[in-house]
Amino acid sequence: MANSDTLERLVRRVSAQVRRRRVEYYTLRGAFWGSLVAVALLIFKAPLAGWAVWLAAGAVGVGAIAGALWGGLKRTSTADAARLADRAWGLQDRVATVMEWAGHPDRTPLVDALIADTLSRVERLEPRAAARRLVPRDGRLLPVPLALAVVLALAPAIPVPSGRLPDFSSGAEEEQPEQRAASTMTDDRSRPATRDRLKPLSFEEKEFATRSGGTGAAMSGDLSAVFKDTALSAQRPDFQSFLKKGDERLKLLEQADRLPDLQSDFTTSQYKMMFKKSKALSGGMRPDQISPQKLKELLEEMERLGRKGGSTWQGDAAEGMEAMEGGQPDRAMEAMQRALEKMRAQEEASRSGKNLKGGRESSRAGASRDRRGAGGEGGGPDDQDFGEGEGMLPGKGRSNSPKGEATQRLRGNPYDVGVEGESRRGRKEGYDTNMTGRAGQMGSRLQYLGVIGQYRKMMEDAIARESVPRDFHAQIKDYFQALDER
Amino acid sequence: MTQDTRAQEFVNSFERLRAEVEKVIVGHREIINHVLIGMFSGGHVLLEGVPGLGKTLLIKTLADGLELSFSRIQFTPDLMPADIIGTNIIVEDADGRKHFQFQQGPIFAHILLADEINRATPKTQSALLEGMQEASVTVGGVSRPLPAPFFVLATQNPIEMEGTYPLPEAQLDRFLLKLRVRYPAIEELNTIIDRTTQARTVSVEQVMSGARVLAYRELIREVPIADHVRALASTIIMATHPLWQQAPEVTRRFVRYGASPRGAQALVLGAKVRALTEGRFNVSVEDLRALATPALRHRIILNFEGEAEGIDTDTLIAQIVESAEAVTAQGKEAFVR
């Protein structure tokens, strides 16, 4: 009952449609590939003579027939055909369900109702194409090779190049066949000779030929001569003579260590830095024109520098800050000037002869002098001995570093790294720390991408556990995304 | 009575019940359909929406249209499991002897309205777990069956709102469907105003008994489903799992956990009810498409990326269904296979 004639007819009809569509589909594909073969045959039609056109037409035909056979022989399953019928007529999977459930062991009474319903619907169906026509991509491109094949068939045969390369040596160039025969590297030289015919002799080749001194083996355009030309390789620029004749400044380059470290000298001078800032602040202005905020910042910085110990201007800076807070910019300016004076005086004092920097060499010399002073005469690091109560504990004994005492060297070298900090104002106790020296100006070398990956995972876990309010999710994600982009 | 007649009777009863509900509830046709589909599938339904959209009224009206006992629990943060299930109390008989007697909680009803279920703590929410799955509750080591049919209709406010506790995944999975109640359209709002601000009261007739509901549940299980439709249902469920080899890109990117086999059951059972209500005796691909969103939206847990990107689960499910159809034979041309 289930596989009634009506349903089977429908499925057979759909299967036949599918087969037709497949034949069309694969015929187009076969014809396309056959036409490509035809084009190839027609390109080389000269040796094939009159057979080429027939062979090309045959290739297209064979391709199409092969495709049609392939499409026609492909099996269409009943389930596929039933599904296609359902889709084509909007039967909402009724036919496919009936085909499956008609002989199903768990067939329920409702299946009978389904079969009856489906049959009544199928009988009312109007004939329609269940399988739509599908043109393959190859099929859409088929006109191109076909047109090409027609053009090639009508056009004269393309001359097929023989296996021999054209004999360019027969031209009217001034090439010497005897010289070529004399050489044992005939094959190697044939290529440059060919190029010579096409291109004028280059400058380099002429040079090499001349420099070789006409030794016989080297001739015009012979690049192999370069490797034989030992005279060329022997020629090196005479830098010594250049130095003798040259600029006196070149000598200085030989003594790079003697150059004064101007940058270090300037940046480590607190007075100069502060003076520069104060000049920038007050240049051409009256005290009432100066921004109180900037003046306050300058005084704060002076006060901070003064806190490092050994300073005499800290009191003046503090007085200036008080004056600022009291709304007296004139007093603050005076205090700043006094502080600057004291800074300058301290700077002058520290610039005694032995402390004056003459460059890296002198600083090294100074360091070794210090070391000698501390460790005794001629005492190298190995010769040094610790005195009573001295040792390797921090703060005890002499440093055996060849560079000298670290404290003395502080800020002496721009590559030295220091950390300075100041307490942060606010409700909670906190400190802001900054690196000093050149390292402080450099970007972080910590591979934070690895750390960020860990943090990101922790953050994702936290969010997944619902411990982060939902409203913050996007914000947190944006934050980590911003870090990733850096 | 032939199956055809029984099916037709079911369709008529379904439509009558819906008509009764629609006497009170304006609009929300799809929500009403899905609530009824959930009831006839033998599952429980969760309705989500902001306060004032008529969720509770819908359920109360549905209970009025059925000859079934109804109880309502207003979930609050201080609600305890015993307030739902019941507890043993000491009673004294005529002889003066004392013994424990079980005092039934409000869960012992055919239709249970768990109003604002996500306002209670997870512990109290979990009190419903056994009842929803096994249709029985255990108190003091004694298992007590719940009346059949037992049908939980819960409402919840969106979890972004203050004072809500998200339902545990295990609890969510026990709901056959999760429905989102949306704002009514302006025409519907006008009708709501007219109906609710006038003196005329609407009475709802009882159109179906409990026995009839159980019989229909049996009928629904007889609806046949073709292999390729069932395969599509399974593929949809598998496509919600990010670790499945053929899972679509959206799943891999945004989903943390996919739907459970309960999701597949919900999908197919719901599709069977829908097929009958549409006057069909078989499940079609259309039914799966229609039921996929309410059956799966609460079973897909988004990962961090999905949460942060604000991915809508409904849109995600639509994409998953589309990709599942492409994976199965459904999306391929028959003659190029």
Task: Tell me about this structure.
The complex is a heterodimer of chains A (486) and B (337). Chain A is an all-alpha fold. Among the domains of chain A are: 5-154, no CATH class; 262-358, no CATH class; 448-485, no CATH class. Helix content of chain A is 60%, strand content 3%. Chain A has 25 helices and two strands. Chain A has helices spanning 5-43, 45-48, 51-73, 78-89, 94-101, 109-123, 137-141, 143-154, 177-182, 186-198, 203-211, 224-228, 230-234, 239-245, 249-254, 262-267, 270-282, 292-306, 314-325, 329-350, 360-375, 406-409, 438-441, 448-464, 470-485, and strands at 418-424, 430-436. Chain A has a two-stranded antiparallel ribbon with strand order 1-2. The longest helix of chain A is centred in the first third of the chain and has 39 residues, at 5-43. The radius of gyration of chain A is 48 Å and the shape is elongated. Mean pLDDT of chain A is 68; it is low at 169-229, 259-267 and 352-393. Chain B is α/β, with parallel strands linked by helices and 337 residues long. Chain B has two domains: 3-78 and 109-207, P-loop containing nucleotide triphosphate hydrolases (Rossmann fold, 3-Layer(aba) Sandwich); 223-331, Helicase, Ruva Protein, domain 3 (Orthogonal Bundle). Helix content of chain B is 46%, strand content 16%. Chain B has 15 helices and 13 strands. Chain B has helices at residues 3-24, 29-41, 55-64, 81-85, 122-125, 129-134, 169-173, 186-196, 210-221, 227-238, 249-254, 261-277, 285-296, 304-309, 313-327; strands at 45-48, 66-67, 70-74, 86-92, 98-104, 111-115, 136-139, 142-145, 151-156, 177-180, 208-209, 255-257, 301-302. Chain B has a five-stranded parallel β-sheet with strand order 3-6-9-1-10. A two-stranded parallel ribbon of chain B has the order 2-11. In chain B, strands 4-5 form a two-stranded antiparallel sheet. In chain B, β7 and β8 form a beta hairpin. In chain B, α1 (3-24) packs across α2 (29-41), α2 packs across α12 (261-277) and α10 (227-238) runs parallel beside α13. Chain B is globular, with a radius of gyration of 21 Å. The N and C termini of chain B lie far apart (44 Å). The interface between A and B is large, with 44 and 36 residues.
